[in-house]
Amino acid sequence: MKTDETKKHDEIYLEVSLVVITIGLTVLMWQIAGFKLVVLNLFYLPVVLAGFFLGRYRAGALAFFSVIAVSVVTAVRLTDFAAFSSPIVIGLSVTLWAAVLGLTAIVVGTLSDERANMLSDLHEAHVGVVEVLAQYLQSAHPKLKARSQRIAELSQSVAQAMGLPPRECDDIRVAALLYDMENIEITAKVIRKAVDDLETQQAAQPHSFQGAELAHSLGTVLSGAFPLLMCQSESEVLGQHSQQRETPVGAKIICAVRSYDRMSREMSLRESVDRNSDDSLVDELRRDFDASHSEEVLDALSRVLMSKRMDKVMALVGS
What we know:
The protein has 15 helices and two strands. Helix 6 packs antiparallel against helix 7 (about 165-180). It starts with a helix and ends with a helix. The radius of gyration is 29 Å and the shape is elongated. The protein is mostly helical. The protein has helices at about 5-30, 35-40, 45-55, 55-75, 85-135, 140-160, 165-180, 190-195, 210-215, 225-230, 235, 240-245, 250-270, 275-285, 295-319; strands at about 185, 210. The chain has a two-stranded antiparallel sheet.
């Protein structure tokens, strides 16, 4: 899955390419003697591509640049328009072309922006459904539910501290929630209740399956969370350094957070937790060479824990 930084680079490359194409069409229009109005139709291609991939604003900017370039060529090489002898007719033709070009940029760009917004809303809806479903299915296991929620929130905070895109942060949160569902047996009836679905007229044969199967079935919906879920097994994430480099950053975050949470619970059972215990646990994770936790992830985890401690201190001072 592409990160936001990669997408921005691709958009910049596409934008520069479309500007170069527009300049090339302007040069072509300058060089051709006669039939210049035919060349005008070629300007629709970069504008449509800009509207579809870059959105309404940049498509409109490219259309405006095209109109300015064509207007300059028309004014300087007016005599080359052999098809029309009247400058007024040529001016009206170019004006009509500019209006249609601008309208095309607005329509295609608006549709592209609406599609992007719908995809974003759909992703947020899927995340919400999975969170509600996970909490519902884990309601019979209060300790498991609390641990899953705690790990999911801390993993998301670490991802945000590392500057990951919002969508990737959501995928990490969902993958952390789904991981603990593999030990819960779910019936089809329970799932229909959880999503408040209507009963079918012909009841299906009751059957049960493991929570991991449900998580796998959601892989096509939450394509970003599914690879992280597959990489969270101890044998894959807690491997050698060569395997660690191939592990997605989201899986590294969840692995480190789960290890920290396990060590924190073990420490709380043995002794009282002081304010320096978080730092000692992170240092212990750094010394765990078998796990090979990412230094970048542990640094972000340390910053998040420190921020949480500061928030608690400020809350106590404010009260």
